[in-house]
Amino acid sequence: HDLVQVKFFVSGELPPEVQLVVRDVRDLVGDMRRASNGKLRVVELNPDADTTAQREASSLGVQPTEFNVLRDNEFQVKRGWLGLAVTYANERRVIPIVDRTDDLELQLASDIASMTTTKKPTVAFLTGFGAKNPYELRALQQALGGRYETRTIDLQQNAAQLTPDSARVAVVAAPTTPLDSNAARQLNGFLDRGGAALVLVENMKLSQQTPMPEPVSSGLDSLLARRGITVKPGIVYDLRSHANVSLGRQGIFSLVRGYPLWPIALKAEDHPTTRDLANLGLGWAAALAVRDTVHVRPLWRTSDAAGTRPVELPIDPRFVAPAQTDTLRSQVVAVAVEPARAADAKRPAAPRGGRMIVVGDADFLDDQFAETNPQNVIFAANAVDWLAQDETLIGIRSKHRE
Fold first, then answer.
1. Which band of pLDDT confidence, cut at 50, 70 and 90, is reported for residue 236?
2. Angle 221-222-225 (CA atoms, 0-180°, nearest 5)?
3. Which three-class secondary structure state does DSSP give residue 235?
4. Do the beta carbons of residue 292 and residue 221 sit within 8 Å?
5. Which of 67, 224, 225, 247 is most buried, taking the most CB atoms under 10 A from its CB?
């Protein structure tokens, strides 16, 4: 609803190796300008030819950079400008050097959204009872960027602080000890009154002394049951769709083996949170049973060569024995819960209140999984947007410009 300005600082003579990036930037900001109904002004400046533009670029934090160019079988160094600055009122967002454009649309749209939003929605990370702290979900925090205010609420000490007025979305990441009655009641009330939640549940944790899993209970069973979801006991394995792990070296060979306990889940059905995504990499996940097929929609499921096994069995990739194949079937590992409509709100089984997304795993957002499969983080960021009922960036975040 107001004017935003994009300034593209680019030298007139850049190496041919960089011209593809220059073309992509011009195409993208031109498309955004045409789609903005006059609210986005794009200015291209050449600091090499204009001292005023050079001073402005420097004041905004855009500096010239050196490009290594191969000429006549030897490397030469070329110096030039290739940066972007987005300004609105007294705010600015700067990309000093544009070295890639595959995520540039998302970056610019996120910057514009965060700069022009007067009140940002709040995401509350709920700690206590062994739940993961925000710093353990670093990839998710970075993906949310500046579009959300984030805070931490300790459910063990300050459960009363969790209200729909204090947070739009709550993130509950794998509590390893059961929530007490006060915390469970507060979380239930938050959802019933319209709050939304991203709930990551685990059936196990790794022992600090030995690489053996220990069964855990979150105390969320009754909360999930009220909304048509049951967490199955055990750990999911998938004999067909799973990640490979390295077993080290044997002589000159590097040994790699398929690891069924790290399933690669496939899209269950079309949903805004999974738009344009292909898979989700999980680690020692729990399976979910859907009892309410009206209000609960599966998001991710394993292949049909999957099952569950007891938590107490060894998880060492060298000793994971093949499971029996006569009971294999697809396992749901993530679901979305829609609130009840007015027409069916009186039904006892209908969920009330705000939206909820439940994933039978929290490890998928750990650094090792997030770096291996960036789609994990995209899905989690999409989930927060959908829970906050702000889906404007989902389509941009999911696609990969080439």
1. very high
2. 85
3. strand
4. no
5. 224
Residue-wise DSSP of 124-175: EEEE-TTPPPGGGGHHHHHHHGGGSEEEEEEHHHHGGG--TTT-SEEEEE--
The two three-digit tokens of residue 14, written as one number:
């850049």
Res. 397 pLDDT band, cuts 50 70 90:
confident
Phi-psi region of 146 (alpha: psi -120 to 50; beta: other; left: phi over 0): alpha
Burial class for 119, CB neighbours closer than 10 Å (0-12, 13-18, 19+): exposed
What average pLDDT does this structure show over 263-272?
94
Phi, psi of 105 (to 5 degrees): -60, -45
Q: Which of 387, 353, 389 is nearest to 193 (CA)?
A: 353
Q: How confident is the model at residue 4 (pLDDT cuts 50, 70, 90)?
A: very high
CA distance readout (Å), 202 to 52, 199, 320, 322, 355: 58, 10, 20, 22, 20
Dihedral of alpha carbons 302, 308, 312, 313, sign: negative
Has residue 160 got a pLDDT over 80? yes
Q: Which of 392, 394, 393, 385 is nearest to 121 (CA)?
A: 385
What pLDDT does residue 198 have?
98
Whole-number pLDDT of residue 208: 66
Check pLDDT > 60 for residue 227. yes
Burial code of 193-202, b = ≥16 C-beta within 10 A, e = fewer?
A: eebbbbbbbb
HEC-encoded secondary structure of 90-132: CEEEEECCCCCCCCHHHHHHHHHHHHHCCCCCEEEEEECCCCC
In whole angstroms, give the CA distance from residue 286 to residue 231. Answer: 7
For the full predicted model, state whether its pTM sits above 0.85: no
- Which residues on adjacent β-strands are paired with residue 215? 204
pLDDT band at 119 (very low <50, low <70, confident <90, very high): confident
Q: Which of 266, 216, 214 is nearest to 238 (CA)?
A: 266
Q: Name the one residue in this structure whose structure tokens are 């710093």.
A: 135
387 close to 169: Cβ distance less than 8 angstroms:
yes
Residue type, 267: K
Phi-psi bin for 23: left (phi > 0), alpha (psi -120 to 50), beta?
alpha
Structure tokens at 161: 């602080």
Whether 202 and 177 have beta carbons less than 8 Å apart is answered as no
